[in-house]
Write a structure and sequence with these properties.
five-stranded mixed beta sheet; single chain; 29 strands; mainly beta
Amino acid sequence: MFNKFKKTFTVGLALAIATAISFTACKKSDDAPTTNTDTGEIKYGALMMVGAWPNTTYYIAGLSSLKEGTIDLKGKGVNMSAIAQDQGFIQRNGYYYYYNGDNGRLGRYHIANDLLVTDREVPFTQMSGFSSHIWADDNTLVVFGTNTDQTKIRYAIINATTLASTGGEINTTAPTDAAYTRIGVGFAEYRSGKIFIGYGYLHANWPTPSYPKVLVAAVNYPSMTVSTLLEDSKSRWPGGPTRYNPYSFVDENGDLYFATVPEGGWDYDGASLIYRIKSGTEVLDNTYNFDYSAKAGGNTVQAMWYIGNGQAIVRGRIPADRSNADFYYNWDSNFALINVQTGAVVKKFDLPTDKGQIYVQAVIVEDGKAYLLVNGANSNGAIWEYDPATDKLTKGATFGAGYDILLRLDKWK
């Protein structure tokens, strides 16, 4: 994803990795927003940003419930700015993984007793920064990025406990038009011994839109050899990077779905399409045609979470006013329910407009229900429970004052 972020976020190329200050275990500083009604076993984490770019601080508050209570930073919250200055963590089983491009170190961290604990940090030289990732198993993290001059996709296979890694390049075919000089990584999805990686090429002259094709590499794991290169000209720029939020999934049938995000490749007029790669195949299903933007009033996909039974939740960008020269900073969004098997937008959720931020890990699926993190445009944010069995939407835990934007909701246990 190469894109312009909202002014509260890093402005620049999508594969640029935000700088970090230092890697230490630390508690929230005394001058941070200052008690939390959440006193049960901590099972979740909510990442909140305080301030505006470049004067931002990132705090994680632990939650015991998504359904009730008030979450704030009064006497609580762990300052994550000690290790990172954006929300692009990779999280699994309560552990956070983050690569600091400034000092070239990869770290694994967790929160305990309202402290940021550094489990391990190691030098990391496999690539200049992470874009997307998959988990091959509970202890094997595979990450994707580019080389320094952004001409090749690189990968690293990482032991999630020791952080030891091996790496190399993914062999792709360059576009015939030499004006598309740089490569960017989109989604990554693992299925039955294959990793599917979306990617695109950027034109040398910004903001000329990216190479006008959807490109996907099917890669054998663990050899990391390319078995098939796929392409399609109906859209461009497979969504990513996935260290912020997901753009793809595999359903109960083994079918893989992914969405395109054309503005990620500087095409601010293009539509988001959802593609399918059927179980047991390595081809884009040419019988499947789901133009999400056409069915959602021009919205484009900003993230997509599978909730089961063919249904997924899409966080869609509301079309911005193109007469405003600053339109590409406007990332106001809403949430919609889609059925990928039928190619239908089932409904738009009756929720407040989600105020402007491009990357928000906003959905947890648990016990057959989905929990949506919503930044209210004119009110404090909240977590909403959606029960697909009853089609009921219920307001759950809310957020108090003291933050500027909600960025992540993660399940730790």
